[in-house]
Amino acid sequence: MSGRTTALAPPDGAEPPVRHPDAPAPGEVIGSHYEHCFGCGGGVPHGLHLEARAGEGVSVTAEFRVKEAHQGAPGLAHGGVLATALDETLGSLGWLLRVIAVTGRLETDYVQPVPVGTVLHLDAAVHAVHGRKIYATATGRIGGPEGPVAVRASAVFIEVKIDHFIENGRPAEIQAALADPDQVKVARAFEVNP
Ligand SMILES: CCCCC/C=C\C/C=C\C/C=C\C/C=C\CCCC(=O)SCCNC(=O)CCNC(=O)[C@H](O)C(C)(C)COP(=O)(O)OP(=O)(O)OC[C@H]1O[C@@H](n2cnc3c(N)ncnc32)[C@H](O)[C@@H]1OP(=O)(O)O
Q1: Is 156 inside any structural domain?
Q2: Within a domain: 167
Q3: For 103-160, how does the pLDDT look when each residue is reduced to its tens digit (9 = 90+)?
Q4: What is the 59 CA–ligand 1 centroid distance (Å)?
Q5: 0.90 cut: is pTM over it?
Q6: Which of 5, 37, 130, 135 is the most exposed place for a label (fewest CB within 10 A)?
Q7: Atom 33 of ligand 1: nearest residue by CA position
Q8: Any ligand 1 atom below 6 A from CB of 138
Q9: Distance (Å, rounded) from C-alpha 151 to C-alpha 108?
Q10: Which parts of this chain are annotated as the region Disordered (predicted)?
Q11: Does ligand 1 lie within 6 Å of residue 132's CB atom?
Q12: Has residue 63 been placed in a domain?
């Protein structure tokens, strides 16, 4: 057994998150981090095309319209797709901290079925940071931003450097990403030097 804990509750000594001075202003749209991302990329026809907006503090909002391609049961969203929407919304919080972070652990609660055609109103916030670990939660509501909760998530994201992608990604896609000035601009926004 290692001493690693994957608990979703921040440990003693965790600090409140600090919004980066260059974070997008509240209300500003946070662009896609990668055109081919299933969650936010414009280049994925059946992707979720999630568009997040910066909120106050270290928080974001996003909307996701459930399409036929997202069904798990007749006329209802697949739970894994909803988890992806929550994961992507949580992932965009990194823009406010100006760190690149990947999902370490994601726990989802499904409270109500979500029909095709529904707009899921998502919000997410970071609650604490401990070393490279970022503790965050997200909620998806139906009927409006104040509507009833349909899905919820708690997560731990882990800060990584750009090398995480360069070392683990498939070389063809990594080379294409590094040759794309828009992608390099995104990486620079995180103050990393690819
Ligand atoms: C050139 C191309 C550029 C392309 C990229 C462009 C721009 C980038 C910008 C943004 C993109 C960033 C994110 C995308 C945003 C949204 C998308 C949705 C998010 C995702 O969909 S993302 C995919 C799914 N995700 C993964 O693919 C992760 C697979 N995994 C790993 O890659 C490793 O597992 C890793 C890196 C997580 C850790 O590995 P490691 O060796 O670096 O670190 P280590 O193990 O030492 O852990 C350090 C501390 O984290 C704690 N810790 C570790 N694992 C934990 C867990 N599971 N739960 C709770 N705590 C955990 C330890 O307990 C320790 O804590 P402590 O320090 O207190 O001991």
Answers
A1: yes
A2: no
A3: 999 999 999 999 999 999 999 999 999 999 999 999 999 999 999 999 999 999 999 9
A4: 20
A5: yes
A6: 5
A7: 104
A8: no
A9: 7
A10: 1-26
A11: yes
A12: yes
